[in-house]
Every structure is written in C-alpha cells, then in structure tokens.
Specification:
It is a single chain. The chain is an alpha/beta fold and 368 residues long. It is 30% helix and 30% strand. The protein has helices spanning 11-22, 37-46, 65-82, 102-121, 145-153, 173-185, 204-220, 229-240; strands at 2-6, 27-31, 49-52, 89-94, 125-130, 132-134, 167-172, 191-192, 200-203, 222-223, 253-256, 259-267, 272-278, 283-288, 294-300, 302-309, 315-321, 327-329, 334-340, 346-352, 364-365. Strands 10, 11, 12, 13, 15, 18 and 20 form a 7-stranded mixed sheet that branches. It has a 6-stranded parallel sheet with strand order 2-1-3-4-5-8, with helices on both faces.
Amino acid sequence: MRILVTGANGFIGRNLCTVIAEKPGFEVLPVTRETTPEQLAGAVRACDAVVHLAGVNRPRNEAEFEPGNVGSTASLCTLLQAEGKDVPVIYSSSSQAAEDNPYGRSKRAAESVLLSHSAQSGANVAIYRLPNVFGKWCKPDYNSVVATFCHRLARGQEIRIDDPGKALRLVHVDDVVHAWLEYLDSPAKGVTWPAVQPEYATTVGELAERIRAYDAVRRTLVVERVGNGLERALYSTYVSYLPPSSFSYPVPKYGDERGVFVEMLKTHESGQFSYFTAHPGVTRGGHYHHTKTEKFLVLKGRARYRFRDLATGQSVQIDSTGNEPMVVETIPGWSHDITNIGDDELIVMLWANEIFDRSKPDTISRPL
C-alpha cells in the first residue's frame, strides 16, 4: 500500500511515516511544503490512500487559516477527483472544530470539503477530531503544553502555569498512528468520525507535577509508576526530550575493602535495584531480616551462598556462577552471606522488596 501523507515532516507526520516505513509492503509518499505541484500530482496518481495532516494552527495572522486549512484540503480533493482516485482519506481535524473561533471554523470548513468529496467520488473518509496530541518529536514552545513542559524541565528551566486547574484532553501519538493504520487496513464505508483511544483526562497542574517527578528520578532514584496508560506514554515523551548531554547520569557508589555497592533504581512500592562486587575470598552479608527479602543474580564470577535458620539451626549452601544464571532468594528469619569463591571479581545484581530505610534497616548482624 502506498500512502500519501501531507504534512509529512510535522510532528504527527514524522511519527506516522516512520511507522509506515517499518511495515513490509507499505510505502510512504511524503508531501511537504517543499513538494512541487508536479510531485504532488504524481503522488496522487500513485497513492492507495491519503492521510491529510497539512494545515495551519499558529499563523502570523488569522487570514492564513482559510488557505492553510480549507484551501489546501480543497486542492487535494480536486487532484484526487481529477485523477479518478476514490482512495480512503484520513483527515486530521481538531476538537476545536466544534468551537467558534477562527481556527475551529477553518477546520470545520475543511471537514465540509471532505464531506463533499466523499459524496462526489464515493471515497471513504475518516475525520478525526483530535484533542491535544503528545509524544516524541513535537515542537516545544509552540502549541503543545506537554512538549513545552518536557523540553524545559529536561533542561532545568522554569515552566509557566497560569491556571493549574485547566482541563486537558490528551491522546498519545503512537495511539493515533495505530488507529489510522487500523482504519486503512479496513476502511469504514462512507464518512465516519472515529475517535482515538485511549484518551486521557488531566489538568495542567497535574501534568506539571507528573513531569517534575520524572525529572526528579535522577536525584532520588525513585521511579514513578510508568508501566501503563498516561504515565507510560508521558514518561516516554519526557525522556525523548532529554538533550544528549543528559543521556547519562551518575548514581551513588559506596566502596570499602570488600568491593563496591551501587544503587541503581528505587520504586514506591516494589523495592529497589542495585549491584555489588566482591574481591576473591571476600564474604559479604552475615545478617538476617525479619521482613525484608532479596533476590541475588550473579552476573560475573563464582559465588557461594550460605543460610542458617535462626529458629532451627538448619543450614543450606548454594553455589552459583555468572555462566549459568540463577536467582537466589534470601528468606526472612535465615541468616545469610555470600562469598566470592572464584579467582576474579564477583559482580552480583540485587533486588530488595523495599527501599532501604536507615531508620528501620531490618538488617541484624548474625555471622554464620
């Protein structure tokens, strides 16, 4: 399928074209401001579908809305009809098309052009009245509060909030692209008005609070809940705005004659991740916990774990190497230690089910 994409080098267009290019059997026919009329006509002749993203939303004056949104849509439809192309058309409209402002009126008028095009040509047309779209590659300090907040906070800059309670409706660009490709796979008949799902509801103040928390992770090491929904998409977006100078950051390292201990990541409710090293012959641990439990994974070297049950005196010994990955768990009520029984440095990854609290360490010395 050859998909003509107008506004191909814009925020949504760039994301859409990237995904299309990943799919076998699909080809992007990009149209930008640099595309000549002859090139546009050739793309129209060759296309199997159209995604119309080109338009104007932040003009120097309001008079640009009419040619930028309505005129460009009319010209595209004229070309399609002149070439006898009744291919499916997706139009990126705006939720503001329901509003009585110059931008909204121009988007509504462009929708009307497409309604007429469908009636005259029989083409299937999907009009998406998108709310605020966010994601990677969106231009900051333009028309996206998400992009502006992410860009500024990722650089340690101030953000301005006039009304923290102002409501926001958001959709992620990946979900937009997925919805459009799903539509093109099986276009609905006639003119339809699909909505991109999921749509997220938040406020400007809540948005700023979330992004500030993402920014703080590098200092506190405590990561937010970023695995699902808005948090997943928003965290990914924030990270995409980090400058190359911030692609890395230091974490605490504690060292002594035994080796080093390095904390990597902490969570609110699921513990923390770290690693430690031990020189040959060195034993670490020699303590027990009442509630805390840990998982150890040898990444390099040879380790011997020893356990003793405080209640019964039962002993257990487990050997592990980095060549045969195996998780060893510490058990509440069992004293335990780990010894480097190899000739090289021992490196062990460690997960604990809670963040270490120096005021309540739950770590009681009991050498084996």
